[in-house]
Structures are given as C-alpha cells and as structure tokens.
Design a protein that fits this description.
The protein is mainly beta. Helices cover about 10% and strands about 35% of the residues. The longest helix has 22 residues, at about 5-25.
Length: about 575
C-alpha cells in the first residue's frame, strides 16, 4: 500500500510532468510576444517579433569564442539550398527543407521525427528563385509551414502527424508561378504567408489563415486592381502580371498590432512594358494581422527597372531619431539605400546609401523618392548602362541583425555591379517568365577578390564603423549577442564569429557545404549553443558564375556548436 508521503510525491511528479508536457506543447500568443526574453527557446522567425536577431546570452564571448567546437551534426538529406531558420522549444529543434520538416533532439542531434512532403514534378520546374524553404512557425503545439505548391500545413509538434492542411485559393505554381518558400509568421493568432514568383508574371499577395483550424481568412494583393487606390500607377491591364512578391518573412509589433512586410519587384523586369510607379511593388507595407487591411505603405523604388526586390525583412527597434527615441522600422533595401521609417505611420526618418550606388544620388526626404541619375534615365530609354548595385542588390534576402547595445546593424552586403540593357518589351502571359529574358545583363566587378563585405552600419546615417571583406558575398544571415559577437557563414562553408566592435574574425569552422542559412543561439541546462544550417544553394550560387564557388559541394546538414570543455 502506498504511504501518504509516497502518494504526495507521486502527485507532485504527475503535476510536474503534466506541467512540462503543457509547456512543451503550448506556445500562446503571449509566449511568442516574449520570445526575445526567453533565450532557452527560439520561437519566432528572427529570434523575436522585432526581427533583431539579437541574443542576451554572454557565455560565449570574445575571450573564449576560439574554443567553439561542434557538438553534433545532422544530415538533412537534401541537395537544395539550406536556408531554414531553426525553431527551438524545450530542447527540441524544428527545422525544414523544401520537401521535409524535422524534429531533432537539441542536445544530441538525434532525429525525433521527420515528415516528408511530396510534390508533382511540374511544381519544381517553375519555382522561383531557388527550390528552398526558410523555416516553420510554432504555435499551440503545432509546427506550421508553407509548401512549394501553395499549401499551408500544421504538424503535431510531438509526433509530426498532420493536424490540418489548407490549400491557398491562389492558382497553383504551374498555372501562375506562385510558390511559397518563406517561413509563415503567426501574429495575433493568424498565420501570415507570402509568395515568391514575380518572375512568372503574377500579381503578388499576402494571405492570412486561422492558426488553430487552417481556415483561409483573407488575401491582401500587393498590387491594386483597377479602380482601387494606386491603380493609376499601372498602365492598362499591366497590374495583372505586375509581380510584387512577398517571399521573405515580415515582423510584428504587438503593441501597434501591425505586421511589417517587404514586397518585391514589378514584372516584367523590363520597365518599358509597365508605365507608372507600379504601386505597391518594392514597398514596405504595414497591415492588420486579423484582416489584412493595409494601414500604410512606403515605396522604395518606383518604376523599378533593375529587379531591386524590396522584400528584405523590416527590423523593428527603438533608436534615437530626430532628437528623441522613436519606434522605427528599418530596412536594408536591395537597391542600396537604408531606410528608417516611423513604425506607427511609415513617415520617412532617414534614407542613406550603405554600399556603392550610381542609379540615384540619394533620397528626397520630403517625397521619399530616389533622386535619379542619368544611369537610371538611360536604362528606362533602353540604352546600355553600367549600374551599381547589380540585380542581386547591396544586400539580398539574407537577414541583418541589430544590437541594442551598440546601436548598429550587422549586414552582409554584396559589391557587384552589372551592365544592363532593356530592349523592346515583350508581351507578358501569366505564368510565363518575365525576368531574365526581358533584359540583358552581365557582371561588373571593381575587384575580383572582393565581392562582398560584412558591415557594422549606423541605421540613421548608413555609414560603416567597420567593413570585413570577403572573396564571395555572404548569403548567410547574421546573429549578434550581448557579448558583442556576430555570427555568420560564408558561401565557401566557414561558420564564423566576429568581434562586433572591430569586425575581426575570432573563430572559423569549415562545414561540409556553403552556408546560406540563419544562425541562432540558445541555452539549455546552463550551456549556450549556436546552431546553423550548411548547404549551398539559391540564385547567386546557381547563376552568378562566381569562380570561388566552383568546388563547393552541395548537401544540407544542421550543425550545433558549444564551448569546448577543458
């Protein structure tokens, strides 16, 4: 017979176990809101709703970073680009490939479950740009991700079994070039997802789904239809094939209840087929997560001829601006200008070049419009010009980080230009290519030994406090910690820690493939870890002709590092 003391002990164990299980399976809206305050877990894309990719952890620091060693590596068994963002909850890492979702023991690297996703062969033939997936969201015991064929699926976090699946009402990728490659964002109970594929002549949008049931709630077209505000910026029916993708995940301010998202380039790349400013392509937009209502929008590159996709994730921060602390949204734009906007109303507070730019002399602070140079005007007239930056931008999709300690952004940038010529515009057909075939481009370099820099940048001026050069640009995102370390990866496979104050490389580890992934840091049982994917892929790796990448093998794997125990 059980004693009273034993009964009480058993009851306590049962209560603890039930509490742990509830903790492991329940991620409420409040949990997501506080993600940046819980370094043991990484629940939101960008390590918190603000997208700052900043960690308060300090166990790994400048003095001991050289002692980092791999703890384990996990094979993802995929030869496509490994761009995923690892989500971590209660000692389990959830990550994705384009065709699989995985749960992995965070301390051992052992697979807990794997869910494979099948696609019809024709789906992969039209996905733009790179057959990849950038991660999943976690909410109330579910791992929620988007699939390339425009389905949103929720899996049980414990078992990997499907909870719900919803097909987007959009046409399939084979019909209109739509493809979901980004990580969803759960904001105020709504799963928000965007689409890639402006290069296939579609009309871009964002969608909202109920996080509990998968019910489709709303669609926000980034390009207005005829008669809607902004439609006057599209000539004739050009809006129907006008682009405006939304393929990189946004950020969320719970206090303002606003989601910030970047929108992509207009289609076709050739601007002579679409007169006007082409709203709301190449824009930062603020929407209500419950309804998809657009509250404000700011366009960075009107009538864009150069594919300066404006999808880079807007970072939310409070910084000194115009003499007082301001809640702002910051975007390192592909066209080469760093924008700072008021988070509440989108008012322009700063806009400065943070790399080599020759298509505009600056940004008019009154109107927000670029001050175009003759290079831009000649390009619109169909003349052959040399343009900086290239189609890849001063930065591309890779995410920057922001440190509240230093007040600086840490941005992986490109230093590549291009020759550009736009001949007579083609007639577009929805679902057919509208990118490279419509213009002629070649790569231009200042120095073949320096194609990119990791920079520490002042958000209000665009000026760098330091710049670390690389032979090939880094397409890995950055991570910054309270110990003033910056983590990033190279396309030749080195995972590195740099001094956030000087840019000096303090530690480097060669992984099996190129790194185009997103590092995160977390702690468990009092020990700090850093996790990142290795696996080369993406448009630059596939199409740039960069000779430094010639012998970099494909193959995706997930790596976790910690300090070596003496």
């Amino acid at each position: 017979m059980m004693s009273a003391r034993q009964g009480a002990l058993l009851a306590a164990v049962i209560a603890f176990t039930a509490g742990f299980a509830a903790s492991a399976s329940s991620q409420t809206a409040e949990d997501l809101k506080n993600d940046h305050l819980t370094p043991g877990d990484v629940l939101v894309y960008g390590m918190g709703y603000s997208g700052q990719r900043y960690s308060p952890l300090t166990q790994i620091n400048k003095d001991n970073a050289a002692r980092l060693v791999p703890v384990w590596a996990y094979s993802i068994t995929d030869n496509r680009g490994a761009e995923g963002f690892p989500v971590i909850k209660d000692g389990v890492i959830y990550t994705t490939a384009h065709n699989a979702t995985m749960a992995i023991d965070a301390l051992t690297g052992s697979q807990i479950w794997r869910a494979n996703h099948e696609y019809p062969p024709e789906t992969l033939r039209v996905v733009c740009c790179g057959i990849v997936n950038r991660g999943a969201a976690i909410y109330n015991g579910k791992i929620i991700r988007a699939l390339l064929d425009n389905q949103i699926v929720a899996l049980d976090a414990k078992t990997g079994k499907e909870v719900w699946r919803t097909k987007s009402p959009a046409p399939t990728s084979t019909e209109n070039g739509y493809a979901m490659t980004g990580a969803p964002l759960v904001a105020n109970g709504v799963v928000i997802a965007g689409v890639a594929g402006a290069e296939f002549s579609h009309r871009g949008f964002l969608e909202g789904y109920d996080a509990e049931t998968g019910k489709h709630l709303w669609r926000h077209y980034n390009i207005p239809a005829q008669g809607e505000p902004g439609s006057e910026t599209w000539h004739g029916e050009s809006y129907l094939t006008g682009g405006g993708s939304s393929w990189v995940t946004g950020t969320y301010d719970p206090e303002l209840d606003l989601v910030y998202w970047g929108t992509g380039n207009p289609a076709p790349w050739n601007p002579r087929a679409r007169a006007g400013d082409n709203l709301h392509t190449n824009s930062i937009i603020a929407i209500r997560p419950k309804t998809g209502e657009r509250v404000w929008a700011f366009q960075t590159t009107p009538a864009d001829p150069f594919d300066y996709d404006g999808v880079h994730t807007p970072v939310i921060a409070t910084i000194p601006a115009q003499g007082q602390p301001r809640r702002v949204v910051i975007q390192a734009n592909r066209g080469g200008f760093l924008y700072v906007l008021d988070a509440k109303d989108g008012k322009l507070l700063a806009a400065n070049a943070y790399g080599k730019v020759n298509w505009a002399d600056g940004i008019d602070m009154r109107t927000g419009r670029p001050k175009h140079t003759q290079v831009y005007h000649d390009a619109l007239a169909g003349k052959k010009v040399t343009v900086w930056p290239s189609v890849s931008g001063v930065t591309n999709w890779q995410h920057m980080s922001f440190s509240p300690r230093t007040g600086l952004l840490y941005i992986n940038t490109l230093h590549v230009g291009m020759t550009y010529e736009a001949p007579e515009p083609p007639k577009l057909v929805p679902g057919k290519p509208s990118g490279t075939p419509t213009v002629r481009r070649t790569v231009v370099l200042d120095d073949p030994n320096v194609r990119g820099y990791l920079k520490a940048v002042d958000p209000m001026t665009g000026k760098s406090t330091w710049e670390t050069p690389y032979k090939s640009p880094n397409y890995s995102s950055t991570l910054v910690t309270a110990s003033n370390l910056v983590f990033t990866g190279t396309m030749t496979g080195e995972f590195q820690a740099l001094d956030a104050d000087t840019g000096k490389i303090l530690w480097s580890f060669q992984t099996p493939s190129g790194i185009v992934g997103q590092p995160v840091t977390w702690e468990r049982n009092g020990r700090q870890y850093v996790t990142v994917m290795s696996g080369i892929g993406g448009v630059y790796a596939l199409r740039s002709g960069d000779p430094n990448l010639k012998n970099v093998p494909a193959g995706a794997s997930l790596w976790t590092f910690a300090l070596f125990d003496k």
